[in-house]
Amino acid sequence: MLKTFKLGGIHPADNKMAALMPIEDIAPEGKVQIFVSQHLGAPAEPIVAKGDTVKVGQLIAKSTGFVSANIHSSVSGTIASIDSIPDHLGIRRTAITITVEGDEWLKTIDRSKEIKHNITITPQEIIAKITEAGIVGLGGAAFPTHVKLSVPQGKKAETLLINGAECEPYLTSDYRVMMEYSEELLIGVLILKKALNVPKVYIGIEVNKQDAINKLKGLQSKHQGIEIVPLKMKYPQGGEKQLIKAIINREVPSGSLPIDVGAIVHNVGTAYAVYEAVQKNKPLIENILTITGKNVKEQKNLNVRVGTPLSSVLQKYGGLPKNTGKIILGGPMMGKAISNLDAPTQKSTSAILIMPQLEASRPKPSTCIRCSRCVSVCPMGLEPYLLIRLAERKMYDDLEKNLAHDCIECGCCIYSCPANLSLLDYIRLGKTEVLKIRRSRK
After folding, report:
1. What is the CATH number assigned to the segment(s) 123-280?
2. pLDDT tens track for 8-44
3. What confidence score (pLDDT) does residue 243 get?
4. Helices (DSSP H) in 30-166: which residue ranges?
5. 139, 174, 328, 415: least buried by Cβ within 10 Å?
6. In Å, how far are 89, 165, 224, 349, 358 from 362, measured between CA atoms?
7. Burial grade of 197 (CB within 10 A; 0-12, 13-18, 19 or more)
8. Rounded CA gap, 107 and 134, in Å?
9. What is the average pLDDT score of the chain?
10. What residues does each domain of the chain span?
11. If you average pLDDT over residues 338-361, what whole number do you get?
């Protein structure tokens, strides 16, 4: 019987239309704009100035705290400016603009195709290399990877879980990593395993990626301590708490973290980036993203330099279809609609989803009929119909009592609501205020 989490969840059409398209490299041109904050935590501090020349892989902004991440140049060229620019949501943030001139890489980066199997450095040296390379979680949250690997005193990592579920509809970048960089991915998993000193690693993959399961299982015998776990197709299987429940049957309590039950979760893309950082001395300067949508003529999986304008990526592949209604960064469930196509890609950009007008339009909401569908599908066991009312009335104390801060913003409630209520929108606003209140107490 296939493993999965038990509480809530849905199964939207997966629409993996780009799954069979191999990863293509995009050559950098024109300019890139690299935000100094592409991660959870404190922004990095620029260490370059206008007029400086840089090479690919060179450090251009240094982390300013433990929960922060280094930023490196994804191109070679001249620093044109350091200024605030609008991101994909239209919010102005500090970015370093570089005019592309050639493609000269730091000599310390190993660009050969040779796969390096032997892991010769200590756990402490692994974490130092990952910190230096600016690796962040590529499953969506962009949490600095070195922080997850630095287990707090009094806690113990017992199991490492690798998220290959890619349960979000349309997305295929993780699948292509598993298919095209299988060996490198598994070596990256072993590097993480060594850094954490755990005896066992599980890689969870949903069964709609059976060829990826078969491929990794075929290599499994060469890499001791790794088990490939086929998972039932169910959204949001890739959520940390849901993956932990599905694979090792442990519950992460409200307000707690995976490490509190002895688990650490990383994404397959993160494991591949760790391989490149540790074995190839390559910082996180590229990201694999999917261009997809029902009316997109050419479905693509692309290896794009961080800081590349979204508009230039789209222009290379025919621009936008005429009936485009919405452009989303990420998947349809947890992605964010773009208000600025000139914004650059970031480390965690996983997809550009182009939705036709008919699907992009929200139906008009009606009155809640108390059907409780939102309750039955919530993977966190919350009561969305109640949380939306509390959020509308700004009853933040009651929101906290009803665990609004546990919401993972998966969108199952709004997807299932027959009244088309904006459940997640209001819950997200209420959750933000609850978290502010909780922080102020500390």
Report:
1. 3.40.50.11540
2. 999 999 999 999 999 999 999 999 999 999 998 999 9
3. 98
4. 123-132, 145-149
5. 415
6. 19, 28, 49, 24, 9
7. exposed
8. 18
9. 95
10. 123-280, 373-441
11. 93
